[in-house]
Specification:
heterodimer; A: mainly beta; 2 helices; globular; B: 632 residues; alpha/beta; two-stranded antiparallel sheet; 27 helices; 12 strands; 9% strand
Chain lengths: 82, 632
């Protein structure tokens, strides 16, 4: 499951951020911003058109991510989480 | 010690004043801390060769020692993802050409956002430079019940940590004391983490040791975001905020603008009375005073607009507006971040284009810069006002017998709407034709809401006002002098029958231009007025007045321009000129700003050519249709 499929206001745990291309700069930046294995994330809100962008809480910070960016964040499936 | 030696000594001190660099994540309150440390003793410029803003200020410590303080662009990481971050990275490493490496890094962190900001502290620490940490917004952290064990944090990091409150008088005193101590101390390299260390794991360890957080976000942020990001309420509030800004820009500025106008007229009159008649007086009064006055008159509008934009920026609302609009703007080939530059362009495209620096994706930035001139800037308002007043009847119109709309107001609204729609269409076309289709990133942080601090607003306003006056003032002044020359020389030969202006360079150019502009209904007077309109659009009005004043012998008729053109021009010509000004190609200051901000003449040529082509095509259609309908 990826962050785009996560229901709103439902906390989940990050498994990994996947590169879309070799040395994907967007994936690298997501990791730097705190999207790393074991971190709790939550979709807080979404934009008015086409549910884009997503407002995602990670750590103490909120980021607006377009769906293509959020799709790089793979979540732990239920049961294997923290 | 005699005076010469003292001066030499002072120079020596100046050269040796230690360089302090403020670094930190965006939204850590770094600029507020910079303002607190340096007050108004700041210098704003660009880094050599790039359009990244460079802010330097001076600080005098309690010991009397002078420090040069540099406010580096905000960065999330030393793996630079934007031009701003690249400047920060190179400067910290001492690689930036012409910039000596800082003697001390002050890493500013938001005490309420340590999960994110401590990672950057660790990354910076690994650089092995002398540094200390400013734990900023300590007051906000305390209010939220966040307990931070500064001692433990300092011990674990191995570098000094000082609490600061950038928005409070004396809130940086402890930092200044630590700064003096740190600079005086010999630097020893830190036993850093191994190169492949997991910084996130280390941050978690530090947080568990030194920080206790009752909840992850501020309750007030959650409550505000629930409403302000709501698809319905949020958009309504955004619309209301924009409406308020426009009302303020047009309503509040008017008395000030009238005052400046009156002041310019008085000053011109005074100079005129004090000097003998001649070319020098004409240059001073008609050229320089009237020309620069015509630009400075827009300063109130620009300042009011920027006061709002700065307040919205400081409060944290702007990223929310970008969040709400991102999807719709991305569809047109722009980004949510384009919203602010385009909003600013309604006052003037120059500050609008300057504020595109906050757009990280270079393609989005170029697209925004190229469509910014399509936003109806305030300089077009005098032209619209003149033409609408002269040609559009002031009657009520409406639907189904409800005549509630003022026809003149509707035309004005239609002109604004046409500008916005054209901008969206042009941006969409550019997106279609772009070769580089790779993904555009948003990755936008929505920071905590904050109450803007008056000091930071005033310093910000002062900076923008100076940039506007310096940049635009210089160009306008030069062109005004040139235009005055073209209109005044050569004089009419002795015994000439026609008006003097016919013999001037500008008059000849105007007549030659009608060959091109006749199909869109422009007469030679309009053509002449278009030339100074290149310098500043609103000058078209005063130029038309000058042209008609110089080209008719009847002085009384030249007094009032509006009846003169309404009897002299056809409705088709007036409509065509109105449409021309939706696109208004070539305001020189805008083109100069595009050159400055993109560093590319090619972009300037593209902008000029497409704006001119659109203006000509739209005016041509308008004129020909109007003539065919009997308005010629």
């Amino acid at each position: 499951m990826t962050l785009t499929e996560l229901a709103r206001r439902k906390p989940a745990i990050v498994e990994a951020v996947e590169d879309r291309a070799p040395n994907d700069p967007i994936a690298r930046r997501l990791r730097e911003l705190g999207f790393v294995a074991g971190e709790e994330v939550e979709v807080v809100a979404s934009g008015p058109l086409g549910a884009e962008p997503l407002l995602v809480q990670v750590g103490f910070t909120r980021f607006a991510l377009r769906r293509a960016e959020a799709a790089r964040v793979r979540l732990r499936s239920f049961g294997s989480g923290a | 010690m005699n005076a010469a030696v003292a001066e030499l000594h002072a120079k020596d001190m100046h050269a040796k004043s230690p360089r302090i660099a403020l670094v930190g994540n965006p939204n850590c309150g770094k600029t507020a801390l910079f303002n607190q440390l340096t007050g108004s003793r700041q210098k704003v410029a660009n880094y050599a060769g790039v359009t990244v803003e460079r802010k330097e200020g001076r600080l005098t410590g309690p010991s009397g020692r002078q420090y040069a303080v540099l406010d580096l662009p905000g960065a999330y990481s030393l793996n630079a993802a934007s031009l701003d971050e690249a400047v920060t990275r190179d400067l910290i490493r001492g690689f930036y050409p012409g910039e000596p490496a800082p003697d001390l890094l002050v890493c500013v962190v938001d005490a309420t956002n340590l999960r994110l900001h401590l990672r950057f502290v660790l990354e910076l620490r690994a650089q092995g430079k002398p540094m200390l940490v400013a734990l900023n917004m300590a007051d906000a952290a305390r209010r939220r019940g966040i307990a931070i064990d500064v001692e433990a944090l300092q011990r674990e990091l191995g570098i000094p940590v000082v609490e600061t409150v950038a928005v409070q008088r004396g809130g940086a005193d402890a930092l200044v004391r630590q700064l003096e101590a740190s600079v005086a101390m010999p630097h020893e390299a830190l036993p850093g983490l191994p190169a492949d260390a997991d910084l996130h794991a280390e941050v978690r360890r530090l947080l568990s040791l030194a920080v206790s957080m009752p909840r992850r976000t501020a309750a007030i942020d959650d409550a505000l975001d629930r409403w302000l990001l709501n698809p319905v309420v949020g958009l309504l509030v955004l619309g209301l905020v924009m409406f308020l800004i426009f009302q303020a820009v047009y309503a509040w500025a008017t008395p000030l603008m009238d005052l400046i106008d009156a002041g310019t007229a008085w000053f011109g009159g005074a100079v005129s009375n004090a000097m003998p008649e001649g070319p020098l007086r004409s240059l001073l009064v008609d050229g320089i005073i009237a020309g620069t006055g015509g630009v400075i008159v827009f300063l109130p509008q620009i300042l009011i607009l920027f006061a709002f934009i700065l307040a919205l920026e400081e409060s944290g609302y702007l990223p929310r507006a970008a969040f709400l609009l991102d999807r719709s703007m991305a569809a047109a080939g722009l980004s949510g971040r384009s919203f602010i530059p385009l909003l600013s362009s309604f006052a003037c495209a120059v500050p609008g284009i300057m504020s595109t620096r906050s757009i990280q994706d270079p393609r989005d930035r170029i697209a925004t810069i190229l469509v910014a001139p399509l936003m109806t800037c305030s300089a077009r308002l005098p032209v619209y006002a003149l033409l609408i007043g002269a040609f559009i009847p002031a009657r009520k119109v409406g639907l189904l017998g409800m005549n509630v709309f003022n026809l003149q107001g509707l035309v004005l609204f239609a002109l604004y709407a046409a500008g916005v729609l054209s901008a969206l269409a042009v941006a969409w076309l550019m997106k279609k034709w772009r070769r580089d289709k790779s993904e555009h990133a948003l990755l936008l942080e929505l920071p905590s809401y904050r109450i803007p601090h008056p000091r930071d607003l005033l310093i910000g306003l002062w900076e923008r006002a100076m940039i506007f006056l310096k940049r635009v003032g210089g160009i306008i002044l030069a062109l005004t002098i040139l235009l005055w020359f073209l209109l005044s020389f050569p004089g009419a030969p002795a015994g000439a029958a026609g008006p003097v202006i016919d013999y001037s360079f500008a008059g000849r150019i105007g007549h030659a231009m009608t060959a091109v502009f006749a199909p869109i209904g422009f007469n030679w007077q309009i053509c002449i007025a278009l030339i100074p309109g290149l310098a500043a659009r609103e000058v078209v009005v005063s130029s038309l007045a000058t042209v008609y004043a110089l080209s008719v012998s009847d002085d009384a008729a030249a007094q009032a321009l509006s009846p003169l053109i309404s009897s002299g021009w056809s409705v088709a010509t007036a409509l065509s000129l109105l449409v021309w000004f939706i696109y208004a190609p070539g305001c020189i200051s805008t083109l100069a700003t595009i050159k400055r901000e993109t560093g590319s003449w090619q972009k300037v040529v593209v902008a000029t050519v497409y704006l001119f082509a659109l203006a000509y095509a739209a005016s041509f259609v308008t004129y020909q249709v109007a003539v065919a309908m009997g308005a010629g």
